[in-house]
Amino acid sequence: MTYCGLRIEKKSAIRIRRSVKREKDALLAESEIVSVLRKRFGGESFSVVKGIGDDAAVIRIPGATQYWVLTTDQLHENVHFRREWTGPKQLGHKALAVNLSDVAAMGARPRFYVVALAIPRSLPRPWLIGFYEGMVRLGRKHQAILIGGDLSHSKDGLHISLAVLGESVRRNALLRCGGKPGDFLYVTGTLGKSAAGLRLLQAGAQTGKTPSERQALKAHREPEPRCQVGMWLARHGFCRAMMDLSDGLSLDLLRMCQESGTGAVVHGDRSPLFPRSRAWGCDPIELGLHGGEDYELLFAVPPRHALSLESAYPAKYPKITRIGMLTRSLHMKWIPESNMRPRPLAPCGFDHFRS
Amino acid sequence: MTYCGLRIEKKSAIRIRRSVKREKDALLAESEIVSVLRKRFGGESFSVVKGIGDDAAVIRIPGATQYWVLTTDQLHENVHFRREWTGPKQLGHKALAVNLSDVAAMGARPRFYVVALAIPRSLPRPWLIGFYEGMVRLGRKHQAILIGGDLSHSKDGLHISLAVLGESVRRNALLRCGGKPGDFLYVTGTLGKSAAGLRLLQAGAQTGKTPSERQALKAHREPEPRCQVGMWLARHGFCRAMMDLSDGLSLDLLRMCQESGTGAVVHGDRSPLFPRSRAWGCDPIELGLHGGEDYELLFAVPPRHALSLESAYPAKYPKITRIGMLTRSLHMKWIPESNMRPRPLAPCGFDHFRS
Fold first, then answer.
1. Which of A149, A291, B38, B311 is the most buried (most CB within 10 A)?
2. pLDDT over 90 percentage in chain B
């Protein structure tokens, strides 16, 4: 969610599309759809702290000690996954993980979730049980409880949609819009690993032969939502804008910049790429910038807090890396190596609704 | 929701399937799936008042003055609707209505909702806007606010999934399981009108020629969730079990009976059927008992409260009708006319997962 999380079509995850040609009556591009929905249908109310336009919505509940967040995210067969590439437990895990990642991106604690599932009549019973097993196992790890759902027949493959309700930490939700020029940009974990895993699957490699291949496949099939990091950041107050990386750094960073009214510069030599993917023909920079589904956190930290953050950050959590900063200029730039000139960084995630 | 709301496949909405033949490895029938999910994956926690197995889940939120309910429900093209039969505004209305109906069935007030939508690339822009217009218009009528969602490309038609968060009235949620033998059974509105509308659509009638046809088409395309009635009932404490009728009275009543540990007897001559559907070849009794998607409320009232309920019930609300009672015997029975002997009432909603 939230109308900023258009999933990448896996086969085209890293395709760069620059020419946008639209038919008059065709759909708007994603950002325009979001803008229209927000303007026309975004409800304003005292009880809505943040509505359409962030990873999750943030609401006030009368009497509650915290803000609460609500998010929804969906996976459709042959758009977001292939059943021959992903086992039921892995898919159950992933379906919840992509939602928990949205909750993590608000700095909130996931509490409850519901799942709407449409399945073909032929689906074997063990598959269905495995799906729930994978989902519930991940949920338990993060203290999120399955409280209900809806089950339906489908004529054309599996359709999965979840909604997760979470609780803020210290009555504080980290939005995309809080960044200021000069803020340092950090990410958790590694960028481009999931896309490298997808490349392996597209090449027919179901099981990795090397530890790197296995890591990449696992990152793609069973991403780890960064719930603990998100809550830690919300609790400690070091950062002032956050989101998760679902559609590739270049596209997601643009969203943070647009919401915050800034530009950004990203340093290639400081970015936590996954260079071992070269072994199977990937370009780690392209995947790190434009590959989707990392489900890592991207957050902006005022420079005065950077040292405190880096020294207080628990070593047991996934590493964090400073990759650049927000700028007053509204452009997004990319410096491949420290002695090179900045280049424009185009948001190259795949947009479903562009022709 | 909640794993008890398997939607009826429209073309087969009123088919009666008695012979159940299963392959060993095939899926379980619906009630068995629900039972397995509930046993294996239903999380127990102080914060969960009611988890898997009701119209919506009921949760405690720290500090909140009320219980909160969360529900999800989905509509898939050519399973739950056809685009050539339903306009975008109507579909947006219906997608929210089926979810609000679940909230109403708990006696709760809908507050916030999110929508996950997967759409074909070719979908015209006005269609999308119309869909949201229909949805938001109904939401405003019931003070429910659209706070976010997720938008994705689909390769095979429209897939819609909503989640609604609601607030209980007087810290009281009306569950399916509260009924006792001897309780009177009531329903709101008319039974079988939506199924009669579906019959018209199946026969190629897009617009009704008579007021009755138009009523039936509207009941099918734009059902009115009974939010006000649900809240009124929760506030006044007359009834002790409630659910909505989404899959036909016979199937839904069975669910209430199973949860409450009772049987039931239903009087045909007292049931609020839609006899005018005879004009286009329908059997009002069959549609009233087994036709789905009425989205009326079914509720159980202790006999000592029946008179108070009937005299206090506001005339401006949709009429309520006493159709029978819960019984100690676990069977479901049907008395066509007052001087006739009871007949077994078989739950004849269509089960997606039976072969």
1. A291
2. 81
